[in-house]
Amino acid sequence: MKLRVVVIGAGIIGSCIARVLSMYENFSVTLIEREFDVGWGSSKANTSIIHPGHEEDPERYPLRAKLCKEGNILWRVWARELDVPVKWPGELMIFFGGEEKRARKYIDLARRNGIPEVRIVPREELLKMEPTVNPNAEGAVYAPTTGVIDPFETVIAVVENAVDNGVKLITETEVRSIKIIESEVKGVSTNNGFIDADVIINAAGIHSDEISHMAGVEPDFKIRPRKGEYVLFDEDVKIKPTKVLHTTPTEKTKGVYGLITIHGNLMIGPTAEDLSLDFKERTPTSDKGLEYLWNRAKVLFKELPPRSKVIRSFAGLRAEPPEGRWLIRAYTDPWGFINVAGIRSPGFTAAPAIAYHVLNLIKMKYAVKLVRKSGWNPYRRSIVRLADKPLHQIDSLIREKPDYGEIICYCKLVSKAEVLEAIERMKKIGIKTITVESIKYRTRAGFSRCQGAFCRWRIALLISKYAQIPLHKVVVKKSPYGIGDVKVLLRSG
Amino acid sequence: MERYSKYDAVIIGGGPAGIAAAIRSKELGLRSVLIENREILGGIPLQCIHPGFGIQYFKEDLTGTEFISKLLTKMRSADVNYLTRAHVHSIELHSHDEKIINVITPEGVKKLKTKTIIYAAGARERHIFETNIVGDRPDGIYTAGEAQTLMDIYGIMPGRRIVIVGSGDVGLIMARRFALEGAEVKAVVEMMPYPGGLIRNVVQCLQDYDIPLYLNHVVIKVFGGRRVEKVVVSKVDEQLRPIEGTEFELQCDTLILATGLVPNTDILEKIGVIIDPTTKGPIVNEFLETTVPGVFVAGNALMINDSVDNVVIQGELAAEGAYVFVQNDGIPSTSWKPVMKGRNIRLVIPHYISGARDVVFYARVQAPERSVEIRVPEVDFKKKLLSVRPAEMIALRLSKELLASLKSSKVTLEVRRL
Prior knowledge:
The structure holds two protein chains of two kinds. By secondary structure, chain A is an alpha+beta fold. In chain A, 31% of the residues lie in helices and 23% in strands. Chain A is built from 13 helices and 24 strands. In chain A, β1, α1 and β2 form a beta-alpha-beta unit. The longest helix of chain A is centred in the first third of the chain and has 21 residues. By secondary structure, chain B is of the alpha/beta class. Chain B has three domains: 197 residues, FAD/NAD(P)-binding domain, CATH 3.50.50; 133 residues, FAD/NAD(P)-binding domain (3-Layer(bba) Sandwich), CATH 3.50.50; 84 residues, no CATH class. Helices cover 21% and strands 36% of the residues of chain B. In chain B, the strands form seven sheets. In chain B, strands 1, 2, 5, 6, 7, 8 and 21 form a seven-stranded mixed β-sheet that branches. In chain B, α5 links the parallel β14 and β15. In chain B, α1 packs parallel to α2, α1 runs parallel beside α7 and α4 runs parallel beside α5. The N and C termini of chain B lie far apart (63 Å). At the A-B interface, β19, α9, α12, β24 and α13 of A face β6, β7, β10, α3 and β12 of B. β24 of chain A pairs antiparallel with β12 of chain B.
């Protein structure tokens, strides 16, 4: 008999757990998500960095230190298997006069955590290595194993691959309660009915404290939403650091990063603002936050692009657990409940390692004898993107499929074929409501200069046609495009 | 790939400027083709069902849709070549009179070889992240053009309770459209102390429908979970900074951004065309030729126009430029005289004139003024105007006879109080 596993939350943590469990015959996995699509919580609004692990204190946070290091190594393989864009530029933590002692702490942490190649780069070498940096910098801590990944596509890719290997995804499903009989979990009751389960894994991110309380464990465990704001510049700005730049954290301020995202935009962020415990549903940006970022960016860079080159500002919530400690634990009372809660930074980096760690917990705690699945497929291919292809290949693609010759998003060169493929793939993993936002994250349409003013309605038209729903009912992000059909009388003749 | 169809002129963009350029280039006997990325020609006026189009050009007050229909009739009788659903991927400069335009179409990639290019790809709208509005990013925020597309092409209503940012003509006209469709337009919010659009539109679009106009105010913040719930509006001081304590809320489900247009110049910049920071379009001479020889620009890709009539005239002028280029292996050398911005002139097109032919200057002022004179002192030109406003583009034709008297190495456009 297979163990019926329900994973709550299709963010990066829940998705990676689902993928790892899908490698074994022992489990039948259901991944449930309350939003329309996967990866819409903390996984989508973050710094997009794969950290080396030289910032984790192994005494205070042994699990974070261990799994961050392992995650960094795993992503090198996972990114290739899943065909997600990743680059490994390395990171420079810049220090100024008087900050060197604090910066040197990270050399020590790197040594203790076994992170390779971390060293101090003196000013002269720093300015050669990274000419965009503030020339007043004294030096930097160089960590070459830092990566930058596409956080949106990564979650999507992990889920596509997990579903391909037998995981069932159910979206738009929110857990109402957890059924426990005689100290054993029996399943979750949701807005979409009851789902039986022998093992329930709580990977609900910002809401993971609420789920834990439903299972009756860790009553004092409370997630504090910590907001991080970011600004993103146009691809065409001249300031293009080749490395990830980072200010040295102080007692009072967290480090702010400046980097080129996987999509080619200069990004500055994040701020760190603790919100009230119940502030979980909105992520507003603020004048204060954006001003702070601007000032920190001035510390990092020799010069900054004009503010008129900002194409987007956004904010995300991080699930900050008490004292910063991740709560990863398998319980025997109730038997079958596992918390993977409060996974704050470096959660994205550690996610694959967290997944193996959870697998091991299941094996040890619930005495499961693991059996590898024979036909497990490690591979998933990305959507073919015109923007990445030379002209002659674009030409052959169009000759195979004329939809490649119809451009929907001008800024990012996204064709109708790509939008339709995104819709097909969503349908394949079981997404019920196709939103414009989901198309954006899969195809990059609307990512750039015009921020979707030209392509949003075109995409909505394709969804309308495909899903056989009126245009005004197509969901943009979370609500319909319009309130009604004003020409309805005209149309019905 | 389909290689090297050979042209004298390839016109990029099938809106009014491009169509006019295509007609004119055909009349002049150029081998030309018009390419448009949508499935139909016409561009933005297709979604403009309000009047105010064609008063100069067709001597008739038409809607945008009617204007395009008339222009297309003219185009059909001129037997112009065109390609729709054709997207310009890139431009390669091979030699002085050979440019390759790589075009993506549903039939494959076409490489068009041409001597000249007339670039008329219009403008894009400024979006919320180019304003100083912070807060949530819920659904219910549309640019004016997107809302207009939904309402007037696809017949769907974006929302019920509307706040519009920006009182340019676009914002004013959208306010009236929403009111006519039964929406409640809560306010039009304008940062400047004066409306951005024509006075006629303030009266006909706002006053006639009792829509409040808040001058010297800005929207500073958006609230909303799934959909816009309210916005915060604040008064601004003389430096246009929000004044603390003057904030008030407007409940609404829709925020419309009519905060201006920016010429689409990305592809031009990639081939070295230099941009004027005041017009945000290319630097051009009197043929509307950019800094790259043989590359001409017209319409809103050149500068943001407020009348389609000017756009069409620019398209025709660019075609004439292309003709001169083809005839002479380039625009004949001359001592180009820079056009200077004098008192109260914010921007002016063209940037260089020869003095050898008639020139139309298009200019905008910095600030509104009453009873003024617009002057070009170098040729002793003066014209009285009752008033000038930043919203109203000044179009000024100087004849070559007048310019023949030009002795100076430059010309200056300036506004003087009477």
